[in-house]
Design brief:
single chain, alpha/beta, about 15% strand, globular
Length: about 500
């Protein structure tokens, strides 16, 4: 009976844990169907905007991204490539771009106690530091001093592979100048993929749901708006007031979002402005990208849990901010639920072998079939619903056929997320992984395999398959068997993907 009681208690806790995340997914999915347009004003003329492109050994995309930035229609803009590459070909490309645009090299440039190779003209700047100290956030932190010295008012921030909408700056200025409490305007990110790029389409479906559904729903409900790393316009006065970027943070976006809100500023999501970029070219690159995001998010969750709880933020903003910080910790709950399922199946099998009384035996099976599986179905559907709503909003109906695969791919990195959470909580030192960019061209991109994750996933696959077969054979009725089958359909393909592709 003790084992039964423990399993029952765990199932209740898991139900509450996943329900907390699911409520937000359901709410945002419904709210996103009628998105809210933020208030706008006519922006003051002459505001100086720095269009900052952050790059690190990304020569494949830089020239085309710079050309895309030059098509921005706002007149008072300066394109600044903030680069800390070590790749000689990337550095040579940047120098060539600078010379072609009439830049002059500034000798002896030094910012944030760092020697800078600086090329300047009226509309284009190359700001190159020799080392990637502090990662992307360290690059931006060094650049802040230059932006302040040159008296820029706003910064439109892009990663190296993003092409912005032509009138993006004007549209963002109309929003950010409507209220002095707005620290940044996050715009929509869409992803390029070919008709036959099936894996990239699955990744794009997952990523675009964040912008078409999650952020759109938050804007509608007045919840916290995440700065998602790029494609955002910042009021530099507000950025300086909250301390700017923190060098060395793996997820400088979530960290900065917390500090904006805790300082009394807020973000706005502008769905009408789109930028187009790339998804990772293969599964291994995708897994490494997600690992970095999860490590940084776990660190942010740990650092800001109590500051957010103690803050004077209204309850709605506080809860949505906590949900954002805890987003990747859901993987830990999923791991517990998988272990729960294995224990429940083993306990049921043991009960059958030892001839336990039918009521006790049926009780365990009932819990395995009617408690755990609905929890996981709830978690799955709350993740799948935004993908469905995003497909409806885009009217790209073929995506409906890809949603199951998109869900399997998302769940296949659960072990990666869990280990990354532990690293983030412990603040284990990490290196920066640059997601490979192909400039929308097909080709082989080499990323080292994760053999331990692959072996762990394969072991999980074997254990789950055995547990499902045991539970299915011992299930007391067709309803329980149906639920067990649904659970197997969720997890077997996910772990198979992780076993083969990690």
């Amino acid at each position: 009976m003790l084992v039964s009681t423990v399993l029952q208690a765990i199932s209740v806790l898991l139900l509450l844990y996943f329900a907390g995340f699911a409520v937000y997914n359901y709410a945002y999915s419904i709210a996103a169907l009628s998105p809210a347009k933020p208030p706008t004003v006519s922006p003051r003329p002459g505001a100086r905007v720095a269009v900052v492109v952050v790059s690190f050994n990304e020569r494949e995309v830089l020239a085309d991204t710079v050309a895309g930035c030059e098509r921005l229609s706002y007149p008072d803009k300066t394109i600044i490539v903030g680069d800390d590459s070590k790749d000689p070909e990337t550095i040579a490309l940047l120098r060539r771009l600078a010379v072609e645009r009439g830049c002059v090299k500034v000798e002896g440039a030094r910012y944030a106690d760092t020697d800078i190779e600086l090329w300047e003209s009226d509309g284009f700047v190359v700001f190159h530091r020799a080392d990637n100290v502090g990662f992307k956030a360290g690059n931006l932190k060094t650049l802040e001093e230059y932006l302040r010295e040159r008296a820029f008012d706003y910064m439109y921030l892009l990663d190296a592979d993003w092409r912005p909408q032509a009138d993006a700056i004007e549209r963002c200025l109309e929003v950010i100048e409507a209220d002095e409490d707005i620290g940044y305007v996050q715009t929509k990110r869409l992803y390029h993929h070919g008709r036959t790029d099936h894996f990239q389409r699955c990744l794009a479906i997952n990523e675009e749901a964040c912008y078409l559904v999650d952020l759109a729903g938050r804007q509608r409900l007045g919840h916290m708006i995440l700065f998602s790393g790029c494609c955002a316009l910042f009021n530099l006065r507000s950025l300086y007031a909250v301390g700017g970027f923190r060098a060395g943070h793996l997820t400088e976006d979530i960290d900065l979002s917390n500090r904006f809100y805790l300082a009394g500023y807020r973000g706005v999501y502008l769905e009408s402005v789109a930028n187009v970029g790339e998804v990772p070219p293969n599964y291994k690159a995708f897994r490494r990208q997600q690992e970095r995001w999860a490590i940084g998010s776990a660190r942010t969750f740990k650092e800001y849990l109590f500051p957010v709880l103690r803050s004077r933020l209204d309850l709605r903003t506080k809860l949505s901010l906590l949900r954002q910080n805890a987003y990747y910790t859901a993987a830990l709950g999923i791991e517990v639920s998988v272990l729960w399922g294995l224990l429940a199946a083993a306990h049921a099998g043991l009960g059958k072998m030892r001839g336990w009384p039918a009521p006790e035996h049926d009780l365990i099976l009932s819990r395995a079939g009617y408690v755990l599986v609905p929890i996981m179905v709830l978690a799955l559907f709350s993740g799948a619903l935004p993908l469905i709503v995003a497909t409806i909003k885009k009217r790209d109906w073929i995506n409906l056929l890809y949603i199951p695969a998109a869900c399997w791919i998302a769940l296949s990195v659960v072990h990666t997320y869990s280990i990354a959470n532990i690293k983030g909580f412990r603040r284990v030192a990490q290196t920066w992984f640059v997601t490979p960019k192909t400039n929308r061209r097909k080709g082989r991109v080499r990323v080292a395999a994760a053999r331990r994750i692959r072996a762990f996933s394969m072991l999980t696959l074997v254990l789950l398959a055995a547990a499902y077969l045991t539970a299915y054979r011992l299930a007391p009725g067709s309803a329980a068997r149906t639920l067990i089958t649904a659970y197997a359909v969720l997890w077997i393909p996910s772990m198979l993907i992780a076993s083969l592709k990690s």
